[in-house]
Amino acid sequence: MITLQKSIETYIRAKDGNRPHLIAQAFAADAELTMKINTRDIAFPPAVKGAKAISDVLVSEFAVRYENVYTFCIGEKPGAETMFECDWLVCMSEKETGSARAGFGRYEWTADDTGRVRALRITIEEMMSLPQETAEPILQWAQDLPYPWCPRDRLAKGAPEIDAIARIRAALA
Where are the alpha helices (H) located in 33-121, listed in sequence order? Predict the structure, then answer.
């Protein structure tokens, strides 16, 4: 049986691991993605319709620029509800430069009666590009966090002493 939790986990596995074929397992064929971007440091289309187009934007095109991607849903897992909201954190590196990227925002998920995602709204509050030398400590921290569901209180454990990471942790606290 598909649940919203399983669909969210499948989406994260697809995006983080560059596995576009998994999106069809997580999203309804006619799913809708909307994005609200509150930063100039990353660009996405404001709306995308259909699982294939969502896969193209959030997996295939994303993977052209980024690697070592860790996406975390912050807080509790969804229960049996068909609507769920959570904060998110992402840590990754840029393929071309090796620079670290870290950002956070909010997910708003709506499932259909099969448990697949019917609508996803992603708000990107901040997406920072950080010097290449910060990539290793940031990715090590990300690797040690519970994945993909991370309790808020675990964000501080092992966090690198980098001002941008401290700001993200404070925003998600």
Answer: 51-55, 61-65
